[in-house]
Amino acid sequence: MVSKRCYELGSARSVIRELFEYGNRRAGEVGPERVYDFSIGNPSVPPPQAALEELERLIRDSDPLELHGYTSAQGDLAARRKLAAGLTARFGHDYGPDDLYLTVGAAAALCCVFHALTVAPGDEFIVFAPYFPEYKVFIEGAGAAAVILPPKAPDFQIDLDALDAAIGPRTRGVLINSPNNPAGVVYTPQTLSGLGELLRRRSGELGRPIYLISDEPYREIVYDGKQTPWVPDHYADAIVCYSWSKSLSLPGERLGYVLVGGQVTDHDQVFAAVAGAGRRLGYVNAPSLFQRLCAACDGLTADLSIYAENRALLTQGLGALGYDTSLPPAGTFYYFLPTLEPDDVAFCQRAKALDLLLVPGSGFGAAGYARLSFCVPTPRIRAALEVFGKLAGEYGR
Ligand code: PLP
Predict the structure, then answer these.
(1) What's the 178 CA to ligand 1 centre distance in angstroms?
(2) Beta partners for 147?
(3) Between the N and C ends of the chain, which has fewer C-beta atoms within 10 Å?
(4) Residue with the nearest Cα to atom 8 of ligand 1?
(5) Every domain range in the chain assigned CATH 3.40.640.10
(6) Judging by DSSP bridges, how do beta strands 211-215 and 171-177 pair with one another?
(7) Rounded Cα–Cα distance for residues 373 and 182 (Å)
(8) Sign of the CA dihedral 155, 156, 157, 161?
């Protein structure tokens, strides 16, 4: 006998992983150049050269016992000091090392926060569609329930009235992800200040804070000279989850953090509960070598200009083929493309028959769209446009 839920999670791959594995098999059959795989969000640019050099330097010059040893549970103090100073310099708020809990990527950061904030089974976290499907797994794994709100097409900003109606006595937190996977939307300062105002009012009525959990692995991947607004500027009870998976192109190295700023209500209790969740989940500490590396590389990013180039190429190329590219992604490396028929699963099946691998939007809670991960080499996008043309042709475009 095993846990039914764990068995299900372990034996059924996610739609995205399934498609990715299919792409690998198919590449073996027809050759990789004939498969146009836009399924998975694995960065396609290498980590910055300076980061790779720093990695070599750390391995060469550090005391190996210290470098590869356990760190304190919340992370190496010097690393947290450096990161907190970097956050303060960028965003203000006077962050300190005791506001930062270093984690095994954003995934672990989120799991720790959901565990920390779930007071009783069935407590609720509100999530806006379209959403990263693992959220439901993480929230339910903490014994809580995910309340999914429908997408607000076409701009995918927040429907504040729907949120107001969804908040109830069991609401513990609201989860946002901006820049958003899969929609590519970046919440505007107006959206965030409206959200902050609403949450302050409803927290006041409940007599306790509704925490806002901000999942930000794509914080630096924004276009047209814009910047991602800093969520704690708009709501004091915001807990930020971050990761270097995308910004430094280090997804396999697993490093991120939870930031519980000093302005968060019951800061010490919340921070201790996050650390306690990490303990309960058996994380011990985040990878020691990469704690040092990410702290040393604070402020650096991989060369994100390639994503901007891919985005421009898709906007122009797909637009010319009759696809709706009127709302290109403001951030991330995902295009959320309205499908050429209402049934997004049928559309993605037709694309798959042409070896064009797109993920149906309904897997993210938004039917009528397909997600296209454009973190691929630019020549692959040029080659794929021809296939997108064939697909559009099947719909008489
Ligand atoms: N949140 C979102 C929205 C993501 O897209 C991902 C990964 O793709 C994660 C969290 C998990 O990131 P990490 O690799 O840091 O665990």
Answers:
(1) 12
(2) 126
(3) N
(4) 41
(5) 50-297
(6) parallel
(7) 9
(8) positive
**CATH 3.90.550.10 applies to domain 4-48+302-393:** no
Instruction: Spell out a b/e string for 173-196, using b for 16 or more CB atoms within 10 Å of the CB, else e.
Output: bbbbbbbbbbbbbbbbeebbebbb
Please identify which residue in the block is written with the tokens 């996008």.
381
Alpha helices (runs of H) in 142-231, residue ranges in sequence order: 160-166, 189-206
Give the DSSP letter of residue 47. Answer: P
From the list 164, 274, 299, the residue with the least C-alpha distance to 220 is: 299
Question: How far apart are the two ends of the chain, measured CA to CA in Å?
Answer: 54
Contacts of 32 (CB under 8 A, 6+ apart): none
Place of tokens 């009012």: 201
Query: Of all atoms in ligand 1, which is nearest to the CA of residue 215?
Result: 1
Ligand 1 cavity residues, CB under 6 Å? 41, 105-107, 132, 177, 181, 215, 217, 243, 245, 251, 256
CATH number of 50-297: 3.40.640.10
pTM of the entire structure?
Answer: 0.96
CA–CA separation, 40 vs 245, rounded Å? 13
Helix ranges, 31-118 (H): 49-61, 64-67, 77-91, 105-117
**Contact yes or no for 338/373 (Cβ under 8 A):** no
Contact 256, 217 (CB under 8 A): yes
- Residue among 174, 146, 139 at smallest CA distance from 160: 174
| pLDDT by position in tens, the chain (length 397) | 999 999 999 998 788 888 999 999 999 999 999 999 999 989 999 999 999 999 999 999 999 999 999 999 999 999 999 999 999 999 999 999 999 999 999 999 999 999 999 999 999 999 999 999 999 999 999 999 999 999 999 999 999 999 999 999 999 999 999 999 999 999 999 999 999 999 999 999 999 999 999 999 999 999 999 999 999 999 999 999 999 999 999 999 999 999 999 999 999 999 999 999 999 999 999 999 999 999 999 999 999 999 999 999 999 999 999 999 999 999 999 999 999 999 999 999 999 999 999 999 999 999 999 999 999 999 999 999 999 999 999 999 8
Query: What are the residue ranges of CATH 3.90.1150.10 in the chain?
Result: 4-48+302-393
User: CA 244, CA 257: separation in Å to the nearest integer?
Assistant: 9
